[in-house]
Amino acid sequence: MTTTMQPLQDTNVLVLGLGSSGLAMARWCARQGAASVTVADTRETPPQLAALRAAVPDARFVHGALDAALLQPVRADLLLKSPGLTPAQVAAVVEATRADGIPVAGELDLFTQALAGLRDTQA
Q: Which of 14-18, 34-38, 52-56, 106-110 is predicted least confidently?
């Protein structure tokens, strides 16, 4: 799904989808030192919104269409897509993100990156 991911430290992250995976990715990115975390969802009040505000108080939440216009007000160095979203739901924003040279990844990519980091520290 992704090209090579950069470390999350000082990265501006845009997470698409605020379900369980979206919340987990937002929390992980904040813990790893992301400069900013923005979470976008089509729902005005997704069930995980209160949990996001509690776990990542500095996170920005945006609701509306997941399309290329989403990138206008959001500065992103990395786009993370929730596995609960279909490719059709995010095609426009993913295409625009990739056209701007911004990596697109998902929850499993974060896990893989964390495992690689753990392996490197134990080597």
A: 106-110
Q: Residue 88's domain is classified under what CATH number?
A: 3.40.50.720
Give me the domain span that covers residue 38: 12-109
Q: State pLDDT tens for residues 34-71.
A: 999 999 999 999 999 999 999 999 999 999 999 999 88
Q: How far apart are CA 107 and CA 101, in angstroms?
A: 20
Query: Pairing relation of β-strands 12-16 and 36-41?
Result: parallel
Number of domains the chain is built from:
1
Q: Which helix (H) or strand (E) holds 49?
A: helix 49-55
H or E element that contains 27 = helix 20-31
Establish if 114 belongs to a structural domain.
no
